[in-house]
Amino acid sequence: RQALLLDGVCCQQGWPVGLDAVPRRPVQDSGNVALEDVAAEGRQGVQNLRERHIQVGPSVQQRGGVGPCGDQVLRAECGGGQAGLKDLREGKLVTLGLSPTTGELPTEHKVDGFLPGQIVFAIARCFNHIGGAREWSDCPGPGSGEEDDLITWDCSTSPTRPDQTGQPFAVEASMVSENSASSGSFKVPNEGRTNGLPFASLEFEIIDAKGEVVRAQADESSREETAEVLRTGAFERSFKNLIPGSAYTIRARVSNAMGFAPWSRPSEVFKTPPDKPHTPQTPMLESTSLKWIELKWFPPYANGAPITEYDIIYSVREDWPLEDWSRVPQIEMLHGIKEHGHDGRRSLARDRGSLIFRLENLAEFTMHYFRLRCRNIVGWSGWSEIAAFKTQTVEPSKVNRDLMEVLSVSKTSLKFRWTAPECNGEEITRFDVLGSSNYRLLKWATFVQLMLRTAPDPDKLYGYAPPGGMELGDITGTEGLDKFINEEITFSPISPYEAHFELSCLMPGQEYFFSMRALNKIGKGELSAIFGPIKTHSDSPAAVAKLEILETTDNRGAPSSPCVARMGDDRRRLQLIGSGCVEGQVRVG
C-alpha cells in the first residue's frame, strides 16, 4: 500500500504564503528527522525543504478542512509561527491499496476542493509486509514551471481575478476643506483573496448626491503593496478637490493580471467638511440718488454652511487702506438687506436670487467705492473687487402719505395738501394728482404706473410735459365724480409752488381717494401710497318733483290696479299701489 499526505497553501505575492513561517529552532520528531534552522525567505525555504524531503506549512486541520485557508489565517501564520512534522501528519492522509480490478497499486490520485492560486504539496511513501518506507518522497518542485514564478509550478492551481473587496469607508479624521476644496483619505478593506497573483491596480470612483461620478482614478499596485495590504487588511487612498459640505459615496475594485474583480458595495454616505464662502462678485449698482446708493449682489457659493452675515465697507478714496474705510453697522446690514423685488419693483430673470442694500446719507455728487464680503460658521470670505458708483441727481423721492393733510371738506368739495419730497438734486417741476371715488380703480392705476417705471419711457426722450396739452392746474376726468358708480380717474398737473389740491362738484356723502407724485427734469417720482378716504359732508334729500299719473284702471268699484307715477325725470320712477280705491274716487299722495 501507499500513503499520500496532502497540504495546500496560497500563492501570495508570488510566494507560497505559509512556507515563510519556517521554524527557527531545531524540532525533533519521532522519526529522528531533525528540522534545522532554515531561512525565513520563502523561495530559499522551499528549496531547503525540498532538499530535506519534508513538507511544512499550515495543516488542513488548522485551516478547517481540505484546501487553503483564508488570507487572514495565512497572514496570522506568516507572523512567525513554527511548523514541523507534527503539522505534516495532521494533513490529509490518503491510503491507497491494491486495485480490486487490476491487483496493482495506483500511481495517480485526483484531489479537489482547492481554490485558485494555490500550491498543493503532496508527499508519499510505500509499504510492504515488513512496514513502511523510512523516508517520504521529495516535495514537488516547479516541474515544467519557472523556479522564480511559483504560480507556474505544476503543483499550483490556476490563478484567476481577485475577489471583491469590502465596502470602502472614508477616514473622517483625515478630511479637511481649504481654499474651497476638500481633501482626505479612505480605506478599502481586503476581505477576499488575491487568487494566486499580486494586485495590479486599484480603481475607485467618487459619486455625488445626484449619482454622477465626479472623480474616477486607477492607481497601479505592486507586490510590495500587495504584501502590505495582506498585512494591514486594507488599501488606503486619498482624494482631493471635492466640493466642501457635499455628500459623496465611494466604490472600488482591484485587479491582477487575470482581470478586474467586481465593484465593491458603495460606501456609506460621507460629507466633506464646510469651508469659508467663496469671495463675492463685485457689487452692482441697482439705483442711485443724491444722497444714497443701492447696491445689488448675488450670494456666493456658501461651501457647505449657510451664509450668516455680510459686511460692506465704503470710502470716497480708492487708495485708502482698508482700516480707514467706513463700515456699515451690522445692525443696519441685518435689517437693511432685502431680496430683490420685495417692495414690488419689477424683477427680471436676471435679478432672481439677488440681494439689495441701500446706503444712506452719502456725500452729494461724489464717487464712492465699495467692497463686500460674507461669512459662515467657518469664517469670513475674501473681500470682493472694488465697485465705484457716484451719487447723482435722480427723479424726486416718493411723496410721504403721512405728511398729507385735509384742509377743508364740504358737501360738494374738498381740499388737502402735502409736503414736497426730496428733489434729489434737481428742482421739482410739477406734481401729478390722481383721484377717484373708486378705490379699486385708483389702486390699479398706481400699480400700472409702478410697473411702467421699469419700462422704456418715451418721456425721457421728449421731456415730461403734462399729457394731452394740459396746463398746470387743469383737471380732467371729473365727469363721474357726482355719480354713485364712477369708472374714471381724475388727473391734474399741479404747479410745484402749490402743494395743495382742491376739487369741487362732488357728491355729498361720498368717499374719495388720491395719490400723487413729484416730477423733475430727470424723471417721474414714484406714486405715493393712497391717501383717503376723504368723505364729503352729507346733505338732506332733494325735493320730490310733481308726480304725474301715467295710468289708472276702472274695475267697477273693486280695488284698483297699481298706478305708476313719474317723479322728477325718466331715470327715477316710483310705483304706487293703491288699495281700497273705488271708481271715481280721488287720491292724493
Secondary structure elements and their pairing?
Layout: E1 2-12, E2 15-16, E3 27-28, E4 34-35, H1 42-51, H2 60-63, H3 71-77, H4 85-89, E5 92-96, E6 118-126, E7 169-178, E8 181-189, E9 201-208, E10 213-220, H5 223-232, E11 234-242, E12 247-256, E13 259-260, E14 270-271, E15 284-288, E16 293-297, E17 309-315, E18 326-327, H6 330-336, E19 338-339, E20 355-359, E21 367-375, E22 387-390, E23 405-409, E24 414-417, E25 428-436, H7 439-452, H8 459-462, E26 490-494, E27 500-503, E28 511-520, E29 531-535, E30 548-549, E31 563-566, E32 573-576
Antiparallel strand pairs: 1-2, 1-5, 1-6, 3-4, 7-8, 8-11, 9-10, 9-12, 12-13, 12-14, 15-16, 16-20, 17-18, 17-21, 19-20, 21-22, 23-24, 24-27, 25-26, 25-28, 28-29, 30-31, 31-32
Structure keywords:
8 helices; 589 residues; five-stranded antiparallel beta sheet; 32 strands; mainly beta; single chain; four-stranded antiparallel beta sheet; elongated
In short:
The chain is built from 8 helices and 32 strands.
Number of helices, where a helix is a run of at least 4 consecutive DSSP H or I residues: 8
Bin the strand percentage.
25-35%
Shape: elongated
- Helix-residue proportion: 10-25%
Biggest sheet architecture:
5 strands, antiparallel
Instruction: State the oligomer.
Output: single chain
Kindly report how far apart the N and C termini lie.
150 Å
Mind telling me the C-alpha Rg? 51 Å
The average pLDDT value, as a whole number, equals 77
The SS-based structural class is mainly beta
What's the count of strands?
32
Low-confidence stretches: 7-85, 567-572
